[in-house]
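Handout, section B. The chain below has 274 residues.
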Amino acid sequence: MSFNMLMLMCVIAAPPEPETNELPGDPILLAHRGLVQHAPENTLPSFAAAIELGLSIELDVYQTRDGHLVVIHDKTVDRTTNGTGEVNEMTLAEIRKLDAGSWFDPRFTGEKVPTLEEVFKLIRERQRTPVTIALNMKVISPGIEENIVRLVEKYELFDQLFAFGQSNDSSRRFKQADPNLRTTVYLNDSQADQFATALRDPLADCLWVRFIPSAEAMEQARQLGKQVWLALHIGEHRPDIWDEARANKIDGICTDWPLVCSRHWRLGAEPKGN
């Protein structure tokens, strides 16, 4: 897809303001797999659209059979390409032959599964202010942590990126490769009572949660220098949750609807709470 077509889509998708940068104090909005309402998930157009609009991004990473890092959500290529097979059993050359765009819309025919390096390069070239990158670890294959760290070092993205979804052992391998790589502890809906304990986990530079911590809990996180990210479920469109998370001063929200959330906040006035 041409850059001009991408920009046309951004203009159509965006509200009248040129960017969706959050107001001071608002949660950072992570565009889940990029701008998925307007471009195929986990592709360069999806990420470019989000970045051009001032959004941060969440993405998913796997390692191919021949040791390359690619950005795709599923364990197989079946759903989001015209091919079949498990990502970590395919070579990069095999994956790059696939069409990762036409399933979404014919205008994206020929779009490729991007490498992680292509995404990092895109971010470096397009961001006007630093965006946050939430790196979702999928299958933990041998050496993946060191390979990711090398790329983060190359593109100088330590301050912008954190990894989540990995095991504690994987987080420790990240820290061994470079202690500056931020790692994350995950808490699901039923683990809210473990929040205070998780904050003190040495591997929890960030917390990735499925519930909204109280304002008091968020203050405790800030005092400890920890970031807390709320992950909404796929397709979940919940202005009430956005507003509660904003009122409790959560650091960021990962959502399929970042533009709608941003516009809701701009039009809906003040956050509640202190």
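Note. The beta strands are 28-32, 56-63, 69-71, 133-137, 161-164, 184-187, 206-209, 227-231, 252-255. Compare this with the example in section A.
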